[in-house]
Amino acid sequence: MKLRVYNSQTSIVLWEGVADSEQAALDAAARAAGYSDNASIPDEVRSPFIVVGDIEREEDCENRRQAIDAAKAAFARSHGLAGASNSAITKAWKRAGKPTV
Predict the structure, then answer these.
(1) Structure pTM?
(2) pLDDT given at position 62
(3) Which residues pair with 3 in a beta bridge?
């Protein structure tokens, strides 16, 4: 799997590469930081915000999000919702059955 280890608060990528599991990715990130593995990182250094993400899945999600945003923008333009809040556009778009996605 192609995985990314990053801090979910700062979005800083700590490691990115191919690993067999999330644990293997965490161990690789720890080694890149000078530790023998993830378990050897001291508690005072360890962050609770470290996340492992599947890069291909994240790219798919981002592409889907961009398609949804484009569809909502087109819907807003065609329904005279220019200047409306994102929440109002989303509600109207959902009521219309989420067209063009």
Answers:
(1) 0.61
(2) 78
(3) 17, 54
